[in-house]
Design a protein that fits this description.
The complex is a heterodimer of chains A (128) and B (240).
Chain A: H1 2-22, H2 28-45, H3 58-68, H4 75-79, H5 85-127
Helix pairs in contact in A: 1-2, 1-3
Chain B: H1 5-13, H2 16-36, H3 45-60, H4 64-76, H5 78-84, H6 86-91, H7 93-98, H8 100-124, H9 129-135, H10 142-151, H11 156-180, H12 186-208, H13 210-238
Helix pairs in contact in B: 2-3, 2-4, 8-9, 8-12, 8-13, 10-11, 11-12, 12-13
The chains are: A mainly alpha (128), B mainly alpha (240).
Chain lengths: 128, 240
């Protein structure tokens, strides 16, 4: 458990170092995600790596534990709304309506593009 | 029991322990309610934890800074949780590899729509420039959006609030919207949730379907990259 958490933190730390080091416009944890993914893929190729947290679903179980409660992690930032009550009193309704419309439009545009592209791909595959 | 309950309160209200406990306990209750209602969209645990804790802070006259000193331990885990998204991605790598082209197309379409729609609507509603800029990165995860907001000299704390509101609304709307429009491809549904509503959408997607959750988490990570690049561009083009 501790070894698995260490591995996750180490991936994040390395991600931060890389991002800060070469000034990438990407968040450090996203680079950490890619590093952990590469490690997991490399483990399947090289038996040498399959030890410690990379053995017996160690890091997999720790990650599942974290992700099972992903919503909780947004609560502290969300409570920050108490600092913005005066602004929300002034523009709150407009902001909420705009965000709601934008979310619906974004959901529909994304899902439609995904479905059209996957249908075109399937058709292309049938022809070839 | 202390002779002076007030001094006990003064001590506890300054310690991280109290606010960490309040955060986790409130969430545990909100999550239990969500589970009891079979994960009804309106029983969103983030939404209800947020107003309950917020009301508690206002009633006790506690500042957000004091609260955050305790709650930061939970907030910090957003980073490791992002890294942990590698695991569902790894476990579903075959499904992901098979859908790489639709994902890239949907990523571009969704990311552009998310930014342009909010900037154009906010301009049309006559919101102040600082508010428009703060809303622009609202579809990416909180840490990234706040970073973008800083580089635009906008208000990162307003950005954080708009990010959470967007996430909650997306998580509430996505299931009824997709059911109503008859979309049954959980890859597409999850991907849309991740683009529009980042981590809160992803948490929702994992509740509904494992594959939807995986696609949502990929969408959220990719969107973090694309939005960081697109927002400065969109703002220069759209905000006078």
């Amino acid at each position: 458990m501790i070894a698995s958490l260490s591995l996750i933190l180490l991936c994040q730390l390395t991600g931060e170092v890389i991002v800060r080091g070469i000034g990438l416009p990407i968040p450090g944890p996203v680079v950490g995600l890619m590093l952990l993914l590469l490690l997991l893929l490399a483990r399947d190729r090289f038996a040498l790596l399959a030890r410690g947290p990379l053995r017996d679903d160690g890091v997999e179980n720790a990650s599942r534990g974290l992700l099972a409660n992903l919503s909780l992690l947004f609560v502290p930032a969300g409570v920050g709304v108490v600092q913005k009550l005066d602004l929300l009193a002034e523009h709150g309704i407009a902001i909420v309506v705009i965000l709601a419309i934008s979310v619906v439009v974004t959901l529909l545009a994304t899902v439609a593009t995904f479905l059209v592209a996957s249908r075109l791909m399937a058709r292309g595959r049938e022809k070839s | 029991m202390s002779d002076n309950p007030f001094s006990l309160w003064v001590y506890l209200s300054q310690s991280p322990l109290l606010w960490l406990t309040v955060t986790v306990l409130t969430y545990a209750l909100a999550d239990a309610v969500s589970l009891a209602t079979h994960r009804h969209p309106l029983a969103n645990p983030v939404l209800h934890s947020m107003w309950i804790v917020g009301a508690f802070l206002l009633l006790t006259g506690t500042s957000y800074a004091t609260y955050f000193a305790g709650a930061q331990f939970v907030h910090f885990l957003l980073g490791p949780a992002t890294v942990a998204l590698a695991v569902p991605l790894y476990e579903n790598r075959k499904a992901v590899a098979a859908a790489i082209l639709p994902m890239l197309a949907a990523l571009v379409a969704g990311s552009v729509t998310a930014i342009v729609s909010v900037v154009v609507l906010a301009e049309a509603a006559g919101l102040p420039r600082a508010v428009v800029l703060s809303l622009a990165p609202k579809s990416v995860t909180a840490g990234v959006a706040m970073g973008i907001s800083e580089t635009l000299h906008a208000d990162p704390s307003l950005t954080a609030v708009s990010v959470i509101l967007t996430g909650i609304m997306g998580a509430i709307i996505v299931t009824p919207l997709m059911n109503r429009t008859g979309i049954t491809d959980f890859r597409a549904r999850g991907f849309a949730a991740g683009i529009a509503a980042h981590g809160i959408g992803t948490a929702r997607a994992f509740q509904v379907d494992e594959i939807a959750g995986v696609f949502s988490s990929i969408a959220m990570s990719l969107n973090a990259l694309v939005t960081s690049l697109l927002v400065p561009l969109a703002v220069t083009l759209l905000v006078p």
